[in-house]
Write a structure and sequence with these properties.
Strands 1, 2, 3, 4, 5, 6 and 7 form a 7-stranded mixed sheet that branches. The protein is globular and about 60 Å long. The protein starts with a helix and ends in a 27-residue tail after the last strand. By secondary structure, the protein is of the alpha/beta class. About 25% of the residues lie in helices and about 20% in strands. Bound molecules: guanosine-5'-triphosphate. Guanosine-5'-triphosphate (GTP) binds next to helix 2.
Length: about 240
């Protein structure tokens, strides 16, 4: 370590143009659940700010990201929108489970089968070494379809409690029309709040390994299947 005198001399030659660019932390969050539960719509709404007019079944994995700022620190939230259909995900699975910082499990509140599938998704995570030490949340989507609800808040909350996850009920289509489940009431842009909550949680944890020079991009991009990796996993998670 340089003594303070030599440090002063040396720092005189250091200008902002010679310093490395500020680095942006990246949080890799995978979004999983049955086909048709709305994973693409949720990730699109968060990254592009609107409900997509048209979606097609995801093949493999789509990758969207958004740059956000917390306490003057820029953070890139990278959402990996995975295919729900088995035939579109097989070859890809082990790649998108690498270096994950958080997992978002999605079910469709109007589709009980998608809720019953959750244990299988949790099991798949476990098989890829993603246990309870990785922050996880449960999202019940399509709450705008109130007349068709098949999965009540109580049963979803019980499931969330058993698995130590916070539960959010929302709608990618109309985020202000969510039901009355835990953590949901009165938020006018709930999808935003869900992903920001996860990012906030991750930010307050151990610094991540992977970072990259700040490019200032905001919004949705699709880099294809092998676009990016995250860093070390975050270590703990409390219910909201
Ligand atoms: N009413 C309503 N429809 C939604 C909502 N979210 C998604 N949808 C619709 O549900 C269908 C499936 O949505 P996707 O986002 O493609 O579902 P996915 O989970 O990504 O499906 P896969 O890519 O096959 O895994 C589409 O027709 C969407 O328009 C929502 O919050 N409310």
């Amino acid at each position: 370590m340089a003594e303070s005198g030599s440090l002063v001399d040396f720092s005189g030659s250091l200008t902002s143009s010679t310093l490395p660019p500020p680095r942006t932390r990246i949080f890799k969050i995978i979004v999983i659940g049955d086909s048709g539960v709305g994973k693409t719509c949720l990730t699109y709404r968060f990254c592009a700010g609107k409900f997509p007019e048209k979606t097609e079944a995801t093949i493999g994995v789509d990758f969207r990201e958004r740059l956000v700022e917390f306490d003057s620190e820029k953070i890139k939230i990278q959402l990996w929108d995975t295919a729900g259909q088995e035939r579109f995900r097989k070859s890809m699975v082990q790649h998108y489970y690498r270096n994950v910082h958080a997992v978002v499990f999605v079910y469709d509140v109007t589709n009980a089968a998608s809720f019953r599938s959750l244990p299988a998704w949790i099991e798949e995570c476990k098989q890829h070494a993603l246990g309870t030490e990785v922050p996880r949340i449960l999202v019940g989507n399509k709450c705008d379809l109130q007349d068709s609800v098949q999965v009540g808040t109580n049963v979803a909350q019980q499931f969330a409690d058993v698995h130590s996850m916070p539960l959010f009920e929302t709608s990618a289509k109309n985020p202000s029309s969510q039901g009355e489940g835990t953590c949901v009431a009165g938020n006018s842009d709930h999808v935003e709040a869900i992903f920001m909550t996860v990012a906030h949680k991750l930010k307050s944890q151990k610094p991540l390994v992977l970072s990259q020079p700040h490019t200032g991009s905001v919004g949705t991009i699709n880099l294809g299947r092998w676009g990016a990796d995250g860093g070390d996993g975050a270590k703990s998670w409390g219910c909201c």
